[in-house]
Every structure is written in structure tokens, then in C-alpha cells.
Amino acid sequence: MSETSAPSVPVSSIAVGQVWTFRGAPGPVTRLVIGAIQDFHSRDAVSVAFTGVPNPADAQGGLIEIPHMPFEASALAADLLELEETGAAAPAGFSEARQSWIREAGGLLSMAPARALAHAVRIAISRARA
Questions:
Q1: What pTM did the predictor assign?
Q2: pLDDT in tens, 47-95
Q3: Left (φ > 0), alpha (ψ -120 to 50) or beta: where does 4 sit?
Q4: 40 and 102 in contact (C-beta within 8 Å)?
Q5: Record's superkingdom (predicted)?
Q6: Residue ranges covered by each domain of the chain
Q7: Which of 25, 118, 120, 127 could be bridged to 30 by S-S, CB 3.0 to 4.6 A?
């Protein structure tokens, strides 16, 4: 169940190649890119990449990308704010990360994108330090 109420945008309007701003984004240039949409055990799965994510471990303000995170469409739609672009390509690493998720029979995120992203950034930083 999503942590937010009614969707900001209809699930049916989400499409591959869209670039969105989203509620709670960690930085002014952080964007969510729709890379793939598929059926996942009778639910709509939306695979996204995050770009322009502030790296809290970089004192100089560097940005990172999170190449793939799979969301339940309704959870994602609840926090989408402004459609900025259509026809965009997913960033490098998206296809490989998505294929890994498919091979490993991963699940779907049903939380707010900003919350899931914050968790992914913490994991990425801890792995980089290890």
C-alpha cells in the first residue's frame, strides 16, 4: 500500500520515456525516468531510474544515478508531480540492472519513490565504503 493518498496522475498516463519530478525529491535536479512497464503477477510494474541524485558522501556535491528500481504503478503515480520530458532514454546501466531484477525474481516497491530512493542511496554509499 502506498504511503500517500490518491494518485497525482492517472496510472494510465505513465509511459516509457517520461521524465518526472516527484514529491520529496532529494535535490533540485533529481528526476525519475520511466524505463519499462510490464505486468508483474497481475500488477502493473514500472521500472524507473533516478538521475541527478545528490551524493551525501561527496563533500563537493556530486550527483549519482540509481539505474533501476521497480515500483507498483499506483505507488509511483501517487507521488509524480510534473512531466518534464517524453521520449527520453533510460540511463546507462538501466537494462542490465532491470535484467538482474528479472533473473533474481525481485519484488515491487509499494512505498513512496523518495523513501525508496533514500534507502537505495544509503545502501550504495555503504557498499562504496566497504
A1: 0.89
A2: 999 999 999 888 898 999 999 999 999 999 999 999 999 999 999 999 9
A3: beta
A4: no
A5: Bacteria
A6: 11-129
A7: 25
